[in-house]
Amino acid sequence: MGSGYNSIIQTSFQKHNTVAVKGIACIMIILGHLTSPSLPLLIRSFAPGYIWVGVFFIYSGFSLIVQHDRELFSWSRFWKKKMGHIILPFFIADSLYAVLISGVRDFRSLATKWLSLDSFNVTLWYVIELVLLWLMASSILCFPKRIQITAFVFAYFLFICAAVLFDIGTWWYESTSCFFIGIILARQEGHAFFKTRSEKELRGFLLTILLFGLAVYILVVMIMNDVLALRIKISLNYLLTGLQMIVVPLVSIGITGLVCWQSPPTALHWIGERSYDIYIVHNLVIALTERYLYDKDTIYGVFTIVCSSILIGAAFYFIRKAVGMKISQLKQGAGE
Question: Has residue 52 been placed in a domain?
Fold first, then answer.
């Protein structure tokens, strides 16, 4: 990076910033899955889950490239880490949902569901898709670097075709675009377009892209709620998918750069560090709350679900970290 320049991407994707935004996204995903009429209209309008899941996808794609381009990167270490931090917690969370909510009592049913790339907890589709994207990326990153971006674009096109062909749900390809955009941003970080000379110019650029992203999002909301009439209804899903590819990167970059400019709020950072654990348990909390406590459409239900999801997710995080630390100590002891 040239002297005297600030990189918009470098500023927006600093880890302490992205962790805080994950905290925001995590809460908004929970609210999006509630869609309670007791919530204010403004929150309901800006809390669709697929928008905020896209934030996690864009960070995952960006982080993968940053890690891969390091000299000591190893796919074996990558998968070992993901197995402990992502995949194993997914199996545990989905098993709890299957037993407590779906009434499953045998392992064969669990295994059959997982082998068909599905889950009992429908909100865990994100984890399944993320693992598939990592597998796809691990193959493409073996190609010569000069053709990798082209290969990723082609792979995304094939991904969309497969999702439509097998009718597995629009959310599979609406949010997925952000994973590939995260990869492209990581590779284009040093491009002149993403460089500014001063902090004032950098803030101005971030504010501009944030406002533009929000304007496009308002357009999406208007279309989805038939506020803005469209004559060509058949193109609606494809239009929304295209707009989604613009909205999520702009809004996520703008928010990280502006809201968390120097030091993110401690509470958001704390939630962000535990965001994955909160995410994988929140739908179980929703189901249990509705069954035994409150209707999720009441303000008490919303408050209970959000707070309980954060607390149970935090406990899940603590247990996962404690177990991981114990295993590391045992390995070190065995090595000695």
Answer: yes
